[in-house]
Amino acid sequence: MAGRIVHGRDAREDRVVRADVVVCGSGAGGSMAARELARGGLEVVLLEEGEDLVPSDFDQREDTTIPRLFQQAGGRRTDDLAITILGGRGLGGSTLHNTNLIKRTPPEILLYWRNELGIETVGPDEMAPIFGAVERDLGVRRIPDERINLHNQIVRRGVERLRFQGAVLSHNRDERCIGSGFCELGCTYDGKLNARRVLVPEAIAAGATVYTDARVDRVRLDVGAIASGVDATLLDARGKRRARLEVRANVVCLAGSAIGSAAIALASDLPDPNEQIGTCLRIHPAALVAGVFEERVEAWRGIPQSYECTEFLDLRPRSQRRVWIVPSFAHPVGIAAMTAGFGPSLMRQMRNFPRLAALAALVHDETEGRVYLDGDRVKIAYEPNASDRDQLALGAREAGRILLAAGAREVQVPAPRPIVARTEAELGEITADRFLPHDARITAVHPMGTMRMGPDPATSVVDPHGRHHHVRNLYLVDGSLFPTSIGAPPQLSIYAFASKVARHILGTRTRDPSR
């Protein structure tokens, strides 16, 4: 029997529902887990804090779409307000707004987790069939050369002139994609083969019930630290309480992102004898660099990210080259927010908008941030350490070199005191001390960790199967279980590890229904 979608904003009274499994969060991890578990014959309830947005809701306007698609209306920042950390909301989570850039967890990372951290069954050989299955489900393929837009072609030109290592990327979209360039504002044309389009309908077809506008407040614990469901609040269109929802379940899966899942765990007062919950947050902090060209780039047109530079990405332990460089662009409001100046000076800068190309230098970070609660408020502590600031500076300098090699007349690093360079020599002004808090702009879109997996409860929250060390029947199925940064976009990794955890749950339930 097929399931259904229930919109919490339409609720008129409190509800109590029962299920075999409740999955909290509908992004890459939650939607994958819900589908796999429902297909395995379990009764699944999938909860999503945001609304169910359909293609016609994506009007390609920043002012109306960003508040609906992003946590805290796109304004989530670290507790010192120095770093913006974007996270998605809505049925489908961050897969609604991301650019569909797909990469597997690098083998160097998987080998480190297996050989150094003792996490068995996560080596490249063990994970390859899971990655392959996800890629087939989501239609992942290399971006055709004819679909590489001018912005990415310019980046490729600079990389090749410098003889740096670069490559065309893969994505998960189909013929509905017309290359409108508005991926991060949701796809009006429904061209993304994402969680909302692929996995959520398949979960419903297998019997899962989906609640939108359902904020999970806490995990319910029975005597003996056994997860028995969740308490949630059904919200109206303004995010105000409409009704109470209690889900009683035999298994609880947290999938609210590295920030959201940690916040739920902390609010639930889960057993945490080694104080691991919320720690070891990684975010891939990114330095942004823009180049001004004589030619019209019109970077907003076409597929946003189709080419990468990996010249400075060495993922081996203790590497001093930990930077992944990819094209990055924003629409006018986003660019204006990152550009220094007011009034006439800002207007002069914005007149360059059609001639801008931009790169993000993302750091495979070693800094360990933290998610914590201040009353009911979720807070994030993260300040890049000296080594990561060195990497941010390295990435910004080399991104500047790529843009100059591609023909930029000048490059700029957004900051209250902007760094402007017209020659390679002037790029030497980009040093680590420019990446102290509130100087050069740092953004992040890849939160990971906070509930990391590992065999040792003293240094991890869940075991290698995603099962909580101290709470029975509680699992993690999102990027919070990654023990380190992965140095790659986490979307495919989250899908794959959620699938892996879901398979373990099915196997365990088959062997022992009391687990």
Can you walk through the features of this model?
Helices cover 26% and strands 23% of the residues. Strands 1, 2, 3, 9, 10, 11, 12 and 24 form an eight-stranded mixed beta sheet that branches. Strands 4, 14, 16, 17, 20, 21 and 22 form a seven-stranded mixed beta sheet that branches. α1 runs parallel beside α6, α1 runs parallel beside α11 and α5 crosses α10. It has two domains: 289 residues, FAD/NAD(P)-binding domain (3-Layer(bba) Sandwich), CATH 3.50.50.60; 194 residues, Cholesterol Oxidase, domain 2. The chain has eleven helices and 24 strands. It is of the alpha+beta class and 515 residues long.
Would you report the number of β strands?
A: 24
* Average of the residue pLDDT scores: 95
CATH superfamily caption of the largest domain? FAD/NAD(P)-binding domain
**Into which percent range does the helicity of residues fall?**
25-40%
The fraction of residues in strands falls at: 15-25%
- Total individual domains: 2
Shape descriptor: globular
Q: In CATH terms, what is the fold-level topology of the largest domain?
A: FAD/NAD(P)-binding domain
Task: Fill in the keyword field for this structure.
26% helix, globular, eight-stranded mixed β-sheet, alpha+beta, 11 helices, single chain, FAD/NAD(P)-binding domain, 515 residues, Cholesterol Oxidase, domain 2, seven-stranded mixed β-sheet
In short:
By secondary structure, the chain is of the alpha+beta class. The protein has helices at residues 28-39, 62-69, 107-115, 124-137, 150-161, 195-205, 257-267, 332-338, 343-350, 386-405, 491-511, and strands at residues 4-7, 15-24, 44-47, 83-85, 101-102, 141-142, 166-168, 170-171, 209-212, 214-222, 226-235, 241-254, 279-282, 286-292, 307-309, 323-327, 356-363, 369-374, 377-381, 410-413, 419-421, 442-444, 448-450, 474-476. Helix 1 (28-39) packs parallel to helix 6 (195-205), helix 1 packs parallel to helix 11 (491-511) and helix 5 (150-161) crosses helix 10 (386-405).
